[in-house]
Structures are given as C-alpha cells and as structure tokens.
Amino acid sequence: MTWCDLWKDKLSRDCSYQGLYSCTVVLITGANRGIGLELVRQITETQKPLSKVFACCRDPDGPKAQALKALAEKHPDVIMVIRMDVADPKSIQQAALQVGSSTTEQMTSTFNTNVIGPMVVIQEFLPHLRAAAKVHGKPGMSCRKAAVINVSTLGSSIELAKEQYVQFKLLPYRTSKAALNMLSVCASVDLQKDEVLCVLLHPGWVRTDMGGPNAELDVQESVQGMLKVMESMSEKHTGALLDYCGHTIPW
Ligand SMILES: NC(=O)c1ccc[n+]([C@@H]2O[C@H](COP(=O)([O-])OP(=O)(O)OC[C@H]3O[C@@H](n4cnc5c(N)ncnc54)[C@H](OP(=O)(O)O)[C@@H]3O)[C@@H](O)[C@H]2O)c1
C-alpha cells in the first residue's frame, strides 16, 4: 500500500476529517429577528470553520434589522446581509446574484493571500535570501543556509481532490493552494542557481482557528514535525510537497 493509498484509506474511514475541509456556507431567510437572527448569531459564533453566513431579510436598512446589522459589523468577514423577500421571486433572483458575486470575491481574496502574497514575499526578500546563501558559503541547499518554506495543504492535491472534493469542498482554498504549489515549484527552479531551497509543507490537520477543535494534532506536534523535516531537507527536496512527517504528498 502506498502512502497515498494510506491517506485515501484514512480519509474514507475518518469522517471527523471533514472538519478541516468542509466549507460551511449558510443561507438564512428572515434573519433580522426572532429565530432567524439567533441562528445567525449562534452559527457565526459556534461553528468553526465557517466561510460565510448569508443573512437575508426584507429590509436590511430598516429599524427591524438593526440587531442583525450590528452582528454583521462585529463579524464582517463572515456575515453578509442580503435583501430578500421570499414572496417576491425577483428579489430572490437578485439575492442569488449577490451570493454568486460574493463567491468570486472570496476566490479573489483567497488568491491574494495564498498566491500573490507569497509571490511578492519571495520577490521582495530575494536579496536577503541570496545574501544569506552567499554568506553561508558551503555548497548545496538547506534551511540553515537559505530557504523558502510555503505552507500548503493536503487539500491542494489535484490527485486526491478527485475523491476528496465531494466530501470536502472549499473551492477557493483548494485552488489557491494548488496555485501556491505551482508558484513554489517554479520558484524552486528560479532559486536553484542561488542555492536557495524552496519547499512546500503540509502541517497536518491541526487544532487552530482554521483546523477547528476536532483536529488530530496540537500546534506543538505539528510544528515539532515540520521543524524536524526542515532540519533534514537538502537540495534533493527543493520543489517538493511534504507533510509534517516528511512524506511526499501527490500533486
Ligand atoms: N490548521 C490546519 O489544520 C491546516 C491544515 C493544512 C494547512 N494549513 C495551513 O497552515 C497555515 C496556517 O494555518 P493555521 O491553522 O495556523 O490558521 P489560523 O489559525 O487561521 O491562522 C492564520 C494565520 O495567518 C495569518 N494571516 C491570514 N491572512 C494574512 C495576510 N493576508 N497577511 C499576513 N498574515 C495573514 C493570520 O493573521 P491574523 O490574525 O492577522 O488574521 C494568522 O496568523 C495556513 O497556510 C493553512 O492553509 C493549516
């Protein structure tokens, strides 16, 4: 059994793994008061990870929507208030359009953080990396010499997505991390002449705000593992995607 098979086997057995990859998007109608408002409040404050709550009401600017507005201001990344009268098909169509454009915005913002951000960080810090490699003097590559470590995820794997995606959605996250993988592989080729190592690491499923409370590892275990892997890396590993135990993740 290959390591990849082990992962697939693990994923199919371990339903709790859904915690990391399930993309929770909720749409609530009549969200400005009563049960609808409390649903928005409790879902926003207790469900992790949570991508978006679309809180729909007939009059978002009216006096009956003030509590919802205040809640949305407290959680601007999560709650989006949308005008929708369920007795009016046109207003339902308008609301659906807003939800669609919000998905596009989410994709853009995730790419900004996970792809464009790392690209600019590498570009801007390149002189420092080159200087560090030069000062080190010895041939080869290592983290002690000069290295870029981009944190990717098992969810970036295109091969595994064929099976995982049905269960674990999170489209912007997956696509942006797959793009980060490509960015890092290309950077590893560009940085080769400067002997700067460039590797992608998957930290495991970790109990953080992102990983949620049911994740397998605490941050100490994950970081301990990643540091051990980093310590052992050489020019052989540049351009690789490894997990926190040093196993190669299939592209
Ligand atoms: N947790 C897991 O199970 C898991 C699994 C696979 C991969 N990962 C990867 O591991 C990395 C860390 O995840 P985590 O679990 O530690 O997540 P987390 O608890 O949600 O922390 C995210 C961190 O990223 C920072 N951040 C977000 N956007 C940023 C930006 N635009 N510029 C600078 N910093 C920004 C946050 O800072 P603020 O506090 O300022 O927002 C925070 O420090 C991520 O790349 C994630 O994809 C995590």
From TrEMBL:
Species in which this protein is naturally found: Periophthalmus magnuspinnatus
Gene Ontology molecular function terms on file: oxidoreductase activity
InterPro entries listed in its UniProt record: Fungal_SecMetab_SDRs (IPR051468), NAD(P)-bd_dom_sf (IPR036291), SDR_fam (IPR002347)
Organism domain of life: Eukaryota
PANTHER family associated with the record: C-FACTOR (PTHR43544:SF33), SHORT-CHAIN DEHYDROGENASE/REDUCTASE (PTHR43544)
Any one annotated GO CC term: cytoplasm
A Pfam family that the UniProt record links to this protein: adh_short
Protein name as catalogued: Uncharacterized protein
